[in-house]
Design brief:
With about 150 residues, the protein is of the alpha+beta class. The protein has helices at about 15-20, 25-40, 95-110, 125-130, and strands spanning about 1-5, 45-50, 55-65, 75-85, 115. Strands 1-2-3-4-5 form a 5-stranded mixed beta sheet. It is globular, with a radius of gyration of 16 Å.
Length: about 150
């Protein structure tokens, strides 16, 4: 397995993996976000995991956040915004390798904490986070009020 940092919005396999994790976004939305991320490398970092046959099998996206991040005590905080591994490659250390790459980037950026989140009903994500060394800090329900 090889981990590569994404250098462009057209990094091989990145779009396909994003579409698998976030199927509700259009291709145009994905490409716009990807272009914005690679144009601001000081704040955003993306990594792709490749198999020995150079097939993209997983990705991680992370950002630096200086606003308050629930459950953290420092600033800036590295935040794991997305993590996905294709089903045939799961439970083989791909996610751990991707998070290790994010962790190295975060440390080099001066962060002392790596945070993440998952919706309450995504119990599989909760298990994966715990297996990757994350600890649960709090549970939150978000609200909104539409303004006329």
């Amino acid at each position: 397995m090889k981990i590569e940092a994404c250098e462009s919005a057209h990094h091989p396999g990145w779009l396909r993996l994003r579409e698998a994790l976030w199927p509700g976004c259009t291709r145009e939305q994905h490409l716009a976000e990807m272009a914005a991320f690679v144009s601001n490398a000081a704040r955003y970092r993306q990594f792709i995991a490749y198999s020995s046959s150079h097939e993209a099998i997983g990705f991680a996206e992370a950002s630096l956040r200086s606003d308050y991040v629930n459950g953290t005590e420092s600033s800036p905080v590295a935040f794991l915004d997305g993590l996905y591994v294709v089903p045939p490659a799961r439970r083989k250390g791909v996610a751990a390798s991707l998070v290790a790459a994010v962790t190295d980037w975060a440390r080099a950026a001066g962060c002392r904490e790596l945070a993440s989140d998952a919706v309450l009903e995504n119990s599989i994500s909760h298990v994966v986070h715990h297996a990757l060394g994350f600890e649960e800090t709090e549970r939150v329900v978000f609200f909104r009020k539409l303004l006329a």
